[in-house]
Write a structure and sequence with these properties.
Butyryl-CoA Dehydrogenase, subunit A, domain 3; Nuclear Transport Factor 2, Chain: A; 7-stranded mixed beta sheet; 13 helices
Length: about 290
């Protein structure tokens, strides 16, 4: 077996773990794959000569790539979060790799909470608390001392626990479901839409929304999914009266507000509000996107 074949075989042994690390850091399957691929390119360029712990070396490379990506994203004020329902590259829930990617606790909700951390906090927390990497190894990745890296992870841990204690994890999970719904709607992914909807979901619309072309009284996952497939292209995620929702803006003003009710990770009702007076009464926060 040649050196390249040996490196490729050895790399594949670490791929799932590296992808899980990158996914938790970035919250995006596609970006995680990019980070892992970059690690492979760097391994191919440098080789493994002189590397005593190849798994540790690959972890460091992936973490540094992710840190750079997080910093670039922060500068651009972007926070992508892939939705598992519509991304065919994410394994199914009974696949062991799914557990490696999402974990068996809070999954997407944790990813949303992690978005509130600084890049260095996020990298330190993910590496240490989720993958047991020593602070001595984390320190050079984030450019801090081991003690400072410990403080970064500790600060991140307090924020994550605080979010869970305040119920933010549940809201984060619901926000992830709404964002997944919007992404599947824009992409026309009927299967992903159906997977996110309760079998008895109900879509309602006020009179103003109906005059604008919306349908009222649509029932069932298949029918509601068919109504939204390929639509909601300009709808933006929002917080509506403290809960995850969406809004369609026209001329910078909200024209239609999407209100969602979610139970057991499935959307049970969708209400379209277009009456200007009702919209004025809503507490709306348009999210970055």
């Amino acid at each position: 077996m040649g050196d390249h074949d040996w490196l490729a075989e050895r790399f594949e042994l670490d791929r799932t773990r590296l992808r899980a690390i990158a996914y938790r850091m970035l919250g995006s399957v596609h970006e995680a794959d990019d980070a892992v691929q970059e690690a492979w390119f760097r391994l191919g360029r440098s080789g493994a000569s002189g590397v005593e712990n190849l798994s540790g070396w690959l972890t460091t490379v992936v973490a540094r790539v992710c840190l750079d990506m997080l910093r670039q994203r922060k500068a651009k004020r972007e926070e992508p979060l892939d939705d598992v329902g519509q991304d065919s590259s994410v394994p199914a829930k009974d696949d062991p790799e799914h557990e490696a990617l999402l974990g068996d606790s809070v999954g997407l909700a944790l990813l949303v909470v992690l978005q509130t951390l600084t890049p260095a906090e996020r990298v330190s927390f993910v590496l240490h608390d989720l993958f047991a990497v020593p602070f001595e190894d984390i320190a050079p990745i984030v450019g801090r001392s081991p003690a400072a890296a410990r403080q970064l992870a500790s600060r991140a841990r307090r924020r994550v626990r605080g979010a869970a204690a305040n119920g933010d994890v549940d809201r984060a999970r619901q926000r992830a479901i709404v964002e997944a719904f919007l992404a599947a709607s824009r992409g026309g992914d009927l299967g992903a839409l159906i997977a996110l909807l309760d079998p008895d979901v109900v879509l309602s619309a006020d009179d103003t929304a109906v005059r604008m072309g919306a349908e009222d009284g649509v029932r069932g996952a298949d029918a509601v999914a068919g109504t939204f497939a390929g639509r909601a292209r300009v709808a933006r995620a929002a917080i509506v009266d403290g809960m995850p929702g969406a809004v369609w803006l026209a001329g910078g003003r909200p024209r239609v507000v999407f209100r969602f009710a979610i139970d057991r990770d499935r959307i049970t009702t969708i209400e379209l509000v277009a009456d200007p007076e009702r919209i004025q009464e809503l507490d709306l926060l348009i999210l970055e996107g």
